[in-house]
């Protein structure tokens, strides 16, 4: 039994927990998932994005627990590349409109089955990858059809801790959340 359980875990049913328990890789979209989906441009044409620090630590905790993290995005952005590099995420696929194909290419040499993949997306280009993966996750600010097809829709909106919520779900389902949180409470992990 876990000492720590996120407040939303009361809505995490046995089917969702079983799916999350099998995850060995999570692939994420960027705009609308890691960011709030808005794009900001300066007068000089520079692009700006905001990433949530909670999400970053959650992804680092997943990687430390042995879960592979990948980012698949339809856009190309130096800001995304910087964020992914800063987090130490090993797999970044930019400019990929067919995200299911990109996801299949990514796992082809990894010996990871579809039911061991979580995919998190918010819009129609994400839908084929989301339904291919064993665990499809969306956000409340995502497109209605994507939310409807997802196995789980986070309580937090994209860009506001939704990725961290998905990370906590996976760690909790795999009985790794306690060990992840213990050092922050001064307890041995």
UniProtKB/TrEMBL annotation:
Catalyzes the hydrolysis of 3-deoxy-D-manno-octulosonate 8-phosphate (KDO 8-P) to 3-deoxy-D-manno-octulosonate (KDO) and inorganic phosphate. Homotetramer. This is 3-deoxy-D-manno-octulosonate 8-phosphate phosphatase KdsC. Its cofactor is Mg(2+). NCBIfam families: KdsC-phosphatas. The keyword Lyase does not apply. Keywords: Hydrolase, Lipopolysaccharide biosynthesis, Magnesium, Metal-binding. CDD domains: HAD_KDO-like (cd01630). InterPro entries: CMP-NeuNAc_synthase, HAD-like_sf, HAD_sf, KdsC_fam.
């Amino acid at each position: 039994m876990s000492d720590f359980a996120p407040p939303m875990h009361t809505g995490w049913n046995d089917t969702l927990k079983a799916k999350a328990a099998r995850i060995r890789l999570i692939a994420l979209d960027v705009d609308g998932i890691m960011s709030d989906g808005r794009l900001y441009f300066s007068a000089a044409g520079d692009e700006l994005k905001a990433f949530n620090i909670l999400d970053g630590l959650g992804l680092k905790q997943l990687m430390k627990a042995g879960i592979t993290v990948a980012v698949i995005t339809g856009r190309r952005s130096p800001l995304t590349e910087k964020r992914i590099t800063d987090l130490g995420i090993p797999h970044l696929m930019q400019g990929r409109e067919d995200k299911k194909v990109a996801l299949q290419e990514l796992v082809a040499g990894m010996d990871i089955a579809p039911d061991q993949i979580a995919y998190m997306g918010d819009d129609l280009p994400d839908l084929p990858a989301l339904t291919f993966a064993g665990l499809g996750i969306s956000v409340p600010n995502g497109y209605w059809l994507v939310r409807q097809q997802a196995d789980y829709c986070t309580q937090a909106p994209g860009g506001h801790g939704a990725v961290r919520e998905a990370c906590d779900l996976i760690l909790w389902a795999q009985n790794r959340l306690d060990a992840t949180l213990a050092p922050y409470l001064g307890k041995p992990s």
